[in-house]
Amino acid sequence: MSYRNSSPADAPGAAHAHAGARVPHDSAAAHGVDVSTFLEFDEPATPGGAAYPLEQEVALGLDVEPDADVPAPPAEQHLELPRSALVVVDAHRPRLPALLRTALFGGPLDATLAVRPGLERQLLDGARDLAERAYPSGRTTVRQSDRWIDHEARDEHQRAILAVYQQHMRLPHQGTSENQFHPLACQILRILEQPWERDMLARARRQQPIDAASLPASGRAFAAWYKQAAFLHPLYEHDLYAFLASEATRPQIEWFLTMEAAGEAAFDDLVALGQVGTRGEVKMEMAQNFWDEMGNGKTHAVHTHLFYRLIEGLAIEPPEADELPWQVLAGVNVMLWACIPRRNAFRAQGALGAVELLAPQRCTRLVHGALRLGIAKRTVSYYGAHAIIDIGHAEGWLEHVVAPQVDSVPAARVDIAEGLLLRADASLDYFDYCLATARAL
C-alpha cells in the first residue's frame, strides 16, 4: 500500500520542495540507496502540462520512453482494490461476503428480496453475528497477534466490508453500484463498521490522550504534535523494513510485493474523495497532491501506471479478496472508511497524512532489498519515487493541510489525530503479519 503528497508553493512534483523538511533518519542515503538515480525521464515535457524537473525524473525511475514494452493497464484492470469474484454460496454454511456480493451485485436489490423473502433477515443476522465475533464488545486489540482474536471471523468481516465499499469505488457498467445507497446496504455496513470502529478508536486512545483538552490548540503546534506522534509510533521503525533491505530472499520479497499488489488502494481516488468540501490552502495542497499522482501530466508517470509496471515486471497475480487475511484488507478498508463517508472527512486528512509521513522508510528499504537481489530499478520505480517525494509531500501536508485545517476548525484536531493513529495501527498489523509470514516461507 502506498501513497504520497506535495506542496503548492514550489514547482509541481519537486522532490525537495521544502528546503527545511526534516528527512527521517531512516532515509535512503542512510541505507546505501542512491534514490537520486530513480528520477530519470528523457521524454520531453508534455506541452500544456507541468513536468517533473529533469533531476527529479532521474531519481523517480521514470527515465524511459512511454512504455513500449510494458502495455498500459487495460481499461478494466483495477489495481486499487482486490478483485472479489462472486463465490458460490454453500447452502449449508453461507458466508456473509458471498451473500452480500450476490445480493448487491446481482441486480436491483428490491427485486432480489422479493423473490428471496428470507434474505434480508439472513443478511442482517449474519452481519450482527459476524461483527460481534470479529470485534467482541469488552475487548480491544493491542496487536494483531492477540491470542483472543478470532482470525477467521476477522477475515470474513473485512471481506464483507470491502464488498460494500466496492460499490462506491467502481463505474456503473461494472455492476457494483446499482444498490449503492439502498437502505439495507447502508444498514448492513453500519452494523459491520460500528464494532470495528469502536475497537480502532479504543486502541488509538490507549496509546496516548487524543481528546481536545490534551491536544495542542494552534495549527502549527498541532502539526508538530502530529509529526512527532507519527515518528514515535511502532510502525516508524518496524522490523520488516530491515528484513526487506538486508535479509529477505527474492521469493520473500516477491511474496511481500504480491501482498502489496493485493492491498493497494489507489491514492489518487482517496485524495479526490478527501478534498471534497475543503477550501483554500487545504484544497490547493490536495490538488497538488492529486496532480503528482497523475504524473504531473505525463501518462507514463502516473503512479497507478508505475504500480502496474511492478505487477507486470514481476508477473504478480494479486490474490482474490477471499484469499487475503484481514490484516491486508483492513489496510485498504480503513482508508475507504476514512475517505468515503463525510462524517470521517477530518479523519481522512489524518489518515492520508500518515501515509505520507510513514511511507519513505518502507519504500527506501524495499528498493534497497530489491536492488540487492537483482530486481530491475525500473520495476521498483514506484517505490523509488515514493522514497523521495513523500518526504517533501509530508511536510506539505503538515503545513498546508493539517495546520490550516486546525486553525480554521479547531475541533477537527481530534479527528485528524484519530485518523493518523488508526491508519498507523492498521499498517502495523499488516507489517506484523507480513514479517511473520515472509520469515516462515
UniProtKB/TrEMBL annotation:
Residues 1-25 are annotated as: Disordered. The keyword Oxidoreductase applies. GO terms for molecular function: oxidoreductase activity. This is Iron-containing redox enzyme family protein. Residues 8-21 have a biased composition (Low complexity). Keywords: Oxidoreductase. It comes from uncultured Gemmatimonadaceae bacterium. It comes from the Bacteria. The keyword Transport does not apply.
